[in-house]
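Following up on my earlier thread - several people asked me to post the actual chain instead of describing it. Fair enough. Here it is, all 477 residues.
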Amino acid sequence: MAVKLPKIVMIGAGSAIFGLGALARIMGSPRLRGSELALVDTNEEGLRTMVALANKMNQAWDAGMTITSSTERTEVMAGADFVIVSIQVGQREKVWEMDWQIPLRHGVRQPYAENGGPGAFSHTARNLPPIVEIARDMERLCPNAWYFNLTNPLIRLSYAVHRYTNVKVLGLCHQLLWGYAMAAAILADRWDIPIPEHFHVHTDADNMPNFIPVAMAALEHLDIKAAGINHFSWVYDIRDKHTGEDLYPLLRERWLHSYRKDFEPLSREIFQIFGMMPTAGDSHMCEYLNVVSDPITKPWDKYELKLQSWEGNRRRRAARWELAHAIVDGKMDVNELKNLRRFSILEEPVPEIIEALVYNDNYYAHQLNIPNNGGLIPNLPADAIIEVPGVISGMGIQGLNFPALPEGIAELCRRELNRSKIVVEAAATGDRDLALQALFLDPMVTDIDQARAILDDILKDFAEYLPQFHRDKEFVV
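Reply from S.P.:
Thanks for posting it. Predicted structure:
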């Protein structure tokens, strides 16, 4: 009996950042040929462009897919096997910059403001309601489907789906590539990997042309086993992919004692203090630490913690739309999208995971965000969303068990996970007391009045995106 081909729903498909790369990867999979693909976005114009692009791929690549689309997700979700979600409430660069600026008014300079810090509270609160609503629609229309969440803050939003619904959720992120790239830079001479001058791994759109070749070379030569939480995972084991040689001693010796001191200096400090290499690179790892926002010591200068480049992201978004329109308008061959790295596009292994679940592949994925299931990492909370590698097959997704993290690292992870529970509950219920507790517990907030002022401004400036906090009409905007 032939395997039933899947129905795949992509929510957020009208975004050039998500839709373009995800479409190319899914439609380029020979083993998903003939599947049903439904594209969803509230942005009608963006959705039309991506549907036209999907039809071009479908024809040129002989994908044989049935393509449907809608601005109303419930029209296409019935019977889905996979629902892939990448959404943002508010124009991404605009609200992200506001997430940084609002706390700065009150003396809190966040280094990144996406997954940690006060800005991540508003980021969570904006996105959580639709993320959970999608899962509740799935409970009615496709209860056995997998929910693939690609939206940050990944820990919190994936946990919200896990906590408030019965839907199977998997959070997907490619941040481990930053760990691969750091290790490759330090060990580059073993394989003659060319490293650009002044190479760094800051998560910045303009840095991707330098970063991606090093990361891809690293995947060819290294095997890393890492675990922890998203954007805060830790190398348990690192080996030469071809010989099996344990490279941890050499990596530790070089990075801590002889490699250039300006290379991800905060990661090096944390490596030295706790004895395990963090994988995320300075710009993401710093979001969970209490040592990055002091206005007197100015750690952003000491560790060269660069802000997110909002203008760089706007240029990237514009370039992706230009690329999509060029193909739809016939000015560029659609086959150019078979090489996404040429356009500095990195994508999660979505088709590989779908194929493994459909065809029982026993596919090894090196970065999965899934519930801890009582102890994949034994000294982290049992129901938390943790990050581990795992095996994907017809049986589902099985994360690998890891030894306990060193207690210092585990405590840093537990603090973030436990605080995230409060953030999630506050964002889900619109409880302002819980919201204040969440900011009070934030490692970057050092004053009670500061926490209150930040919360007041978040609720005022983002009022249109945070209806859950304004139902009682007591807060005057």
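The CA atoms of residues 186 and 298 lie 27 Å apart. That should answer part of your original question.
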